[in-house]
C-alpha cells in the first residue's frame, strides 16, 4: 500500500511531534510513524500503584528553556519550582554531611557550599583548581564546530579521566567532572568513555551553571506528547501511526519512499528522522548515508541510565529542613532530587543509576538491586527512606527504541574526525542533511542536547530545513 503525503516524520518523541506540528501548521500534510505502541519517546509519565504521577524519563525545565516554557503555556500546562529550600546531603567516603547549597554552581562543589562540607583544605583547593581549569577549557570550546577549538585533536584524544589525572590524583577533585559525565544532563557515560573535549562541549552548549533543573511540570511532563498528538489528529485524522517501525528510506529527485517493517510504503516530498543516532543504523538508506556519517553513528552510543522513583506518604526530609538533593559516592545512586510539588503531595525522590552502573546493577536480581537502592536512599535520608510506598525503576538501556538516556555521547577522537567530516557544508555540530532527509531528536540540537529544550529546537530546525526544499 502506498500513501502519498508531503512529509514523513520518523519517531513520535517530542522532537518529531514538534517538527510535525510546524509542518502541519505551514499547510503540509504530514505522517508521523512511531515504532512503539505509544508516543513520547523518553518523555513519558505513569501512575504508580498508590496514585502518584511520575515521569519515567525527562522531567525538568531550566531557567533558559524558553521554547519548552512557551510550549507548556500554549498547552495550558502549569509548572512549579524544583524544591531546593533547605539543606542537602553530601555523602563522601562513608561520611554523611548536611550542608547548604551555594548561590552559584560555578562557585560550588556540586551545588554545595564548599566550606560547609568539612573537607580537608588541600583537597578542596585541588577541587577548586581543577574546576577553574575546566571552566577555562569550556570557555575556549567552539560550540558549533568543536574541532576548531584550540588543541582540539589533543583534547579529543584525552579521556576525561586522563585529563583530570594530569591535573590531580585527588579523588574529591575529580568528583565534579566524574559526576558531570555520569549524571549531568548530557551524561550517562564514564570518565574513560569520552574525551575531555566532548565533556567541555556538553557544558558549552548545555551548561549546568544555567540551572537546567529549575522547574517541573505539574501533572508530569509526559502529558505533552499526547496533547501534541491530539492537535495533529484534529487537523488530519490518522496523522500519527503507532507500531510502524521504519526499516528503509529511499529517495530520488522527486521525493522519498519510507518503508515500515509491516510492508507499508509512504511516499513524500521529504522526511525527518527523529530517533536517537544509534537507531538510524537500523534504517536502510538508498542512496546510503555517507561513510563519515555511518562512522559517526557507530561511535555515538546512548548514555547508560536507569531512573529510580521512590514515592512516600509525605516528604519527611522537608520536615527536617532538607531539600532532597543528595550527591556522593554511594555504590548505586549518584544523585537524588525532590520531584514533588510545593504542597508535598505526591512526595517523590528521583534518583539515577548512571553510566556503567545502569548496566552492571541492571543485570543483578531485582531483589538485590532493590536492596542496594534502598540502602543508598537510607544513607542519604535516613530510615524512613527505606520504606517507600512505591519504588519504580525505568531502565532506559533496555528500551529497544531508545537504547539509553539522556542522550548520546561520542567516543574519544570522534569530534575531530568523523563528526567533522559528517558535518559537511552544514558546519556542525550534527551531521548534514542527507538529501531530502533531515535529522531531529534532542541529540542533534546545537543547544541543550539531552533536554526537552534541545528536542524542541531540533524539531523546529528540521521542519524549517524541509520547508526550504
Whole-number mean pLDDT: 96
So, the CATH homologous superfamily of one domain? FAD/NAD(P)-binding domain
Determine Rg (CA atoms, Å). 22 Å
Unreliable spans: none
How does the overall form come out from the CA principal axes?
globular
How many E strands?
Answer: 22
Distance between the termini: 26 Å
| Proportion in helices | 25-40%
CATH topology of one domain: FAD/NAD(P)-binding domain
CATH hierarchy: architecture of one domain: 3-Layer(bba) Sandwich
Q: Order of strands across the widest beta sheet? A: 9-8-18-19-20-17-21
Report what the structure shows:
With 469 residues, the chain is an alpha/beta fold. The chain has a domain at 2-41 and 221-300 and 409-467: FAD/NAD(P)-binding domain (3-Layer(bba) Sandwich), CATH 3.50.50.60. 32% of the residues lie in helices and 20% in strands. It has 15 helices and 22 strands. A seven-stranded mixed β-sheet has the order 9-8-18-19-20-17-21. A five-stranded mixed β-sheet has the order 1-14-13-12-16, with no helix packed on it. Helix 1 (14-25) runs parallel beside helix 15, helix 3 packs across helix 7 (196-205) and helix 5 runs antiparallel to helix 6 (171-182). The model has no long low-confidence stretch (mean pLDDT 96).
Amino acid at each position: 500500500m502506498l500513501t502519498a503525503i508531503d512529509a514523513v516524520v520518523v519517531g513520535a518523541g517530542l522532537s518529531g511531534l514538534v517538527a510535525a506540528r510546524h509542518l502541519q501548521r505551514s499547510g503540509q500534510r504530514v505522517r508521523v510513524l512511531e515504532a512503539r505502541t505509544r508516543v513520547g519517546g523518553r518523555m513519558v509519565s505513569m501512575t504508580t500503584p498508590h496514585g502518584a504521577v511520575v515521569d519515567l524519563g525527562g522531567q525538568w525545565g531550566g531557567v533558559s528553556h524558553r521554547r519548552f516554557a512557551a510550549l507548556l503555556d500554549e498547552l495550558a500546562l502549569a509548572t512549579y519550582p524544583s524544591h531546593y529550600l533547605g539543606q542537602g546531603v553530601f555523602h563522601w567516603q562513608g561520611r554523611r554531611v548536611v550542608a547548604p547549597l551555594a548561590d552559584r554552581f560555578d562557585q560550588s562543589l556540586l551545588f554545595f557550599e564548599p566550606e560547609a562540607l568539612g573537607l580537608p583544605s588541600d583537597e578542596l583547593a585541588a577541587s577548586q583548581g581543577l574546576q577553574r581549569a575546566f571552566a577555562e577549557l569550556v570557555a575556549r570550546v567552539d560550540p558549533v564546530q568543536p574541532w576548531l577549538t584550540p588543541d582540539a585533536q589533543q583534547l579529543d584524544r584525552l579521556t576525561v579521566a586522563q585529563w583530570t589525572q594530569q591535573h590531580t590524583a585527588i579523588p574529591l577533585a575529580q568528583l565534579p567532572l566524574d559526576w558531570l559525565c555520569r549524571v549531568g544532563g548530557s551524561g550517562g557515560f564514564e570518565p574513560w568513555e569520552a574525551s575531555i573535549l566532548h565533556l567541555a562541549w556538553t557544558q558549552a552548549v548545555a551548561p549546568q551553571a544555567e540551572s537546567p533543573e529549575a522547574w517541573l511540570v505539574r501533572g508530569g511532563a509526559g502529558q505533552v506528547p499526547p496533547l501534541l498528538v491530539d492537535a495533529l489528529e484534529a487537523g488530519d485524522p490518522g496523522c500519527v501511526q503507532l507500531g510502524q517501525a521504519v526499516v528503509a528510506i529511499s529517495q530520488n529527485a522527486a521525493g522519498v519512499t519510507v518503508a515500515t517493517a509491516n510492508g507499508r510504503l509512504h511516499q513524500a516530498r521529504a522526511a525527518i528522522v527523529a530517533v536517537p543516532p544509534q537507531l538510524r543504523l537500523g534504517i536502510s538508506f538508498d542512496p546510503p548515508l555517507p561513510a563519515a556519517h555511518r562512522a559517526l553513528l557507530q561511535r555515538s552510543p546512548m548514555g547508560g541510565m536507569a531512573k529510580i522513583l521512590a514515592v512516600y506518604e509525605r516528604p519527611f526530609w522537608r520536615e527536617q529542613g532538607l531539600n532532597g538533593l543528595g550527591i556522593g559516592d554511594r555504590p548505586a545512586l549518584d544523585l537524588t532530587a525532590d520531584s514533588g510539588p510545593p504542597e508535598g503531595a505526591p512526595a517523590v525522590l528521583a534518583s539515577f543509576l548512571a553510566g556503567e552502573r545502569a548496566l552492571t546493577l541492571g543485570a543483578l536480581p531485582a531483589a538485590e538491586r532493590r536492596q542496594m537502592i534502598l540502602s543508598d536512599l537510607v544513607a542519604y535520608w535516613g530510615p524512613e527512606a527505606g520504606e517507600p510506598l512505591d519504588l519504580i525503576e525505568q531502565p532506559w538501556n533496555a528500551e529497544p527504541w531508545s537504547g539509553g538516556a539522556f542522550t548520546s555521547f561520542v567516543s574519544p577522537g570522534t569530534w575531530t574526525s568523523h563528526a567533522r567530516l559528517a558535518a559537511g557544508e552544514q558546519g556542525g555540530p550534527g551531521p548534514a542533511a542527507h538529501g531530502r532527509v533531515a535529522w531531529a531528536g534532542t541529540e542533534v540540537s546545537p543547544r541543550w542536547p539531552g533536554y526537552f529544550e534541545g528536542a524542541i529546537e531540533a524539531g523546529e530546525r528540521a521542519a524549517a530545513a524541509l520547508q526550504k526544499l
